[in-house]
């Protein structure tokens, strides 16, 4: 006879490993601490091995526990995926979709995607988590979100990424900045400027920093903001200069409130994609959302023409 493991005991054990606390595990699963303790103890009895030890209030995972945790995560994720796929078929378009995206994607990409997605699945419950790529990738690995629109890093583990589009980060300044007089600047000179940049923990910041290091330079003065719109406003009043995606500043450049500055031949290029866990089998709803993202990205590959005017013209 096939011997199976109680899924509720597995869930209690995995949650305990993740939280490191019986109290927090009980709260997350809406159970008592005693119920959690009994679930883990019964699981140990069933498997005939010790999975956790307690030293005071500290929870320690044994080698056997570590081995089980790896398998148990996959088992629980597959069970959840199977349930969602069946519900997706039974309740067409009435499921739940958890999306993650950077603040830039939330503002410039998601509105067009959601408009079309809502026409396909008007009854789908959507939750959107705005965060930077590293945090979104962690949430994707833990199956806390289903799909995330990210700037793709070079090294990826446990995550699949479908390419969407590439963009270029360009240097922009106020029309009254000295760089705007000629429309060009050397990297050594730029490094001496006050930089207004997106969050330091983002891949965008990392790519900009790498560009300076490639030129054997360090940024001497910079401030971080979590909003592209706030960055643009500070650059407009000549508080500093910034590297921003060309498609996010095309209106300002064409209107003359920002000026595009040439920095030489080396370009700062980002690759955008939509990610999901490698062990995840996409549902119909998720496949549709991904397809709409690809269609919207295809439209972004042909951006509006950006003016090269400087304040001297």
Quick structural gist:
This protein is of the alpha/beta class.
Strand content: 15-25%
Q: How many DSSP H or I helices?
A: 12
State the oligomer.
single chain
User: What is the total domain count?
Assistant: 3
Low-confidence stretches: 303-313
Name the CATH architecture of the largest domain. 3-Layer(aba) Sandwich
Straight-line N-to-C gap: 84 Å
Question: What is the mean predicted local confidence, pLDDT?
Answer: 86
**Helical residue percent band:** 40-55%
Family: Belongs to the LysR transcriptional regulatory family.
Keywords: DNA-binding, Transcription, Transcription regulation
Domain HTH lysR-type: 5-62
Protein name: LysR family transcriptional regulator
Descriptive overview:
This is LysR family transcriptional regulator. InterPro entries: LysR_HTH_N, LysR_subst-bd, WH-like_DNA-bd_sf, WH_DNA-bd_sf. The protein is 45% helix and 21% strand. It is of the alpha/beta class. The protein has three domains: 7-89, Winged helix-like DNA-binding domain superfamily/Winged helix DNA-binding domain (Arc Repressor Mutant, subunit A), CATH 1.10.10.10; 93-164 and 271-300, Periplasmic binding protein-like II (D-Maltodextrin-Binding Protein, domain 2, 3-Layer(aba) Sandwich), CATH 3.40.190.10; 167-269, D-Maltodextrin-Binding Protein, domain 2 (3-Layer(aba) Sandwich), CATH 3.40.190. It is elongated. Mean pLDDT is 86; it is low at 303-313.
